[in-house]
Target: DUF1934 domain-containing protein
Amino acid sequence: MTAKQRVRIRIESRSGSETTVQKAKGDLYPKGEHTYIRYEEAQNELGRTVTLIKLETNQIRIIRQGDVQAEQTFVPGEKRVGFYQTAQGRMELEIETHELTSTAEQGIGITRWSYDLYASGTHAGHYRIKLLIQEE
Model:
């Protein structure tokens, strides 16, 4: 696969007994050893946001641009610093990733990870994410 292709994206986020599901359509494209997935989030009260997910061998990076800006990096066994910014202000995030597994082939398939999130130094929750990418 060398050109971008249209994909369906499903993100399940679990924290405690709560599960949220986000669905979108976007573009998947390879670049070197990495796979990128780009999609526009559903319009909400925070405005328009475009998300870029960079899938690497043992790392995931999520960059959000637009009315919401954020950056998070997930590396198993490591703590990484990120941020979340809206018109109301900027919040520093710390992400401690516990596990990251993927059965995806060139981005198509399932990637899962779990992490603890700290916002401005306070524990904000433990999260389990399932990212499902399918060809459109």
Notes: DSSP finds no helices and ten strands in the chain.
